[in-house]
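Comment thread on ticket #2218

A.B. wrote:
> Attaching the input chain for the structure job we discussed in standup.
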Amino acid sequence: MNTRIGAWVLTTCFLTSLMVTNVSIAEEQSSPVFQIGVTISNKLPTERFSQNWPVHVYLTSPGSKIPLSSKTTRLDQLPFKTTLTEKDNVLPMFTLKGHKELVLVVKISSSGDPHKTGSEDYRQVSPAFEISPNDKTSLSMTLSEQ
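C.D. wrote:
> Ran it. Output below, let me know if you need it in another format.
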């Protein structure tokens, strides 16, 4: 009897594991993926910035400053390529899910905080673009004097 119960428990755990894995894979496949490239134009010389400031690259809703998916690099790492997905959210309650339109924001931040504005900060925002759940979108932005 104990062998049967043990086999049943083991089989149930295995099948449950398979179901959870399949759900996770389905969720990943239904989330958009964004291939991001950021370069800096020679019209925006890095000497303008007194230090090697952080560069925040993020997706947000048009008109919002709350990052939905974000990565950070440093000024000396440009050009920079990365991928932004649902997993790169900053706050769990603000994600890419449910958004139909986004903008790409790149901010060079003297304070290190993308929400604070310093005298040497630089911010560039893309035009709004539409997305769908299974999108694989490539975006590029060249930072230049505005």
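A.B. wrote:
> Thanks. Noting for the ticket: Helices lie at 2-29.
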